[in-house]
Amino acid sequence: MSNSQNFLSSINAFVDKAKAKNELVVKKACIEILQDIIRMSPVGNPELWAINQTAVAYNIAVSDYNSSLRDNPDNLTKNGRLKKGLKVNDSMDIKKRANYSGGRFRGNWQVTFNVPASVELDRIDPSGMDTLKDGIEQIGRYTNGVQSIYFTNNLPYSVRLEFGHSKQAPNGIVRVAALNAQVHFENAAKGG
Prior knowledge:
mainly alpha, 45% helix
């Protein structure tokens, strides 16, 4: 083999190694971004809904009152238990739709390449673990030929949530994750 062929082989090996590192950096950073998006995605919590604020405040007040009863030794038995008849056993119901289950928004994140997802998923995933698993699986298919990576949520209320409709994510989800994206890419490039 001639010197020029050895040199060309060395360059090709370097390029192949750089491409593989680039793919790994993108994959690692995208997994971190997806984790951010899922973690910041609000999960419906009826106790935070405006319609339930009176009930929540009442239930907290009852709980606080019952706890305060223990502060007075006259209210306790010799065994340290609260005497019968002192505790208030009352609460207000938290309102929610029949068969309501939080986690639909968190479960609708989809990772696609070159074209954004165009469908809604019928997945309820309050923890986000199934969504993360599917997203990591898709990110694992990334190659240098991919032009764009999309993180999409097609639920009709996703835009409202992005622009402050939820007290759990008042600054949005994707916008906040985008601010952290550069750090994720830098850390991945450093081997983190």
